[in-house]
Amino acid sequence: MPQLNTPEDVDVWFRDHGWFPGRDVTDTLPAMVDEITGQYRDAGHPVEPLDTATAFLAEHGGLTLTIDAAREDHLYFTPYLGYGSAPADVAELSRDLGVRLFPIGLDGSEGSPVLMDERGRFFYLHHTGAYYMGADKYEAMLALAHAPMQDAEDFYV
Fold this sequence. Notes:
The protein is an alpha+beta fold.
């Protein structure tokens, strides 16, 4: 992962991996959303697409950002299930936060789902717990680069 200290650094990192202002992959959204909602439904913990999440995915969906090239670790902005109990963990975190969540990506180095809530905030599920990443993509990526992240429980209702 490059050194990320500013929103401009985040934009450069994203540009290096195919993002540009105004990027629009809306035509790929139905397949992404159908796949992940089906997996969560089949696991007994359905999720619904959120306007905030689909807007983010319309611009960033399908991007694969390199975290560590030597280890072949990537951040994927395609909704993936992650680990097997992720749907139950997402449902629990959603209840605790008092907001709906939708998976928007995966930290492949950890198998950790990246989630967005209906306010546009980012959360991260890890085997060590749930974490708040930030209020937007810039805060979220800076938090990822400068872990540890803030505990999600600080935002419970």
